[in-house]
Amino acid sequence: MGIEVTPCASLEEVTGAFAPIWHYFGGRPTPEDIERFSTLLPIDRVHAARENGRIIGGASSFPFEMTTPGGTVRAAGTTVVGVLPTHRRRGVLRSMMRAQLDAIHERQEPVAYLWASEETIYGRFGYGMASVSCDFDLPKSHGEFVQRFEPRGELRMLEEEEALAPFAEIYERVRPLHPGMFARSEDWWKLRKLNDPEARRAGGGPLNRILLTLDGRPEAYALYRMHQSLELGISSGHISVIEAIGTSPDATRETWRFLLDIDWTARVKAQLLPIDHPLFLLLARPRMMRLRVADALWVRLVDVNAALAARSYGPGGPVVLEVADAFCPWNAGRFRVSRDGVERTTAEADLSLDVTALGSMYLGGFSAERLAQAGRGAELRAGGLTRATNIFAADRAPWCPEIF
Q: How many C-beta neighbours within 10 Å does residue 236 have?
């Protein structure tokens, strides 16, 4: 009997579909895990792969609204994808991706995106690396800024309940500015960001929730944990910054100044910062950050025409793209893209590329010229690469501040 992939119909089936990915993290999904996920993730968006009636794999997708350059788009946030090690290399993942992308297409969600557990997996199914993120580990002794300033805001530590409203307001003011961010529901804030289960602490202390107000208005927040350790009575511990978001350069600067000045700690660590984060230019000694850059978001255009229509474009003449898509053949064809809109066309193409390369371009993270230099696209008419680079450019680097 072959592999059968169908949407889940009960929480029991969801538990089975989640089990493969939990296996690789050394555990099993608890009832609390299932309850938390089921609040945010409709059951029918969880696909289970079965062999002889037994669940041996699972793949899910959150219903998101994602920011694009100049707009938003309905997007599937692909998550909790895994196959039991007893069934590897048998086409199970391919079957699940087939069923999932077909379902996303039927729901008229033009885009799917994810954080890849391994960077070699999802290109086979049309996902392209669309952004990079940065981690750092900075000795507190090297946290001085290039320019000194006098903070003028008010900082307060908040409990979970009182943090919800101001944090959500700040995030929603920032979200439209950063391609790749997604709208957070109240449940998302409560279950994913502000609560503090022991399992998330990774050896650290309780979650700290800091609010910065400027002139009486909430302008920035930070979530962090203390990981304390002592050597001969001297702190060798670190602060783990989970998320720090400000609505303005002043608010961002003051928030990071606070985080870098917390007493009785040796280092400050943070993850998932965008490549254009202002901290890199604020610090007097940025090389002391021990910066690590890695792939972040991977984007899959499920409906190329609708996805391209959901973002704005820069100046320059129109460009005609010839798109190849072996896994979702309904996307194959030519598309004329300009500031006036997007349409299918039979006109001569300026640039040919695979849908994975188009996913890399979509949020503005990688230009057509860079992709072509890596053999990921070909110029068919003179000037095509330059025009594509110009009109797909974005003001800011793509960024999603959390792994979903």
A: 13
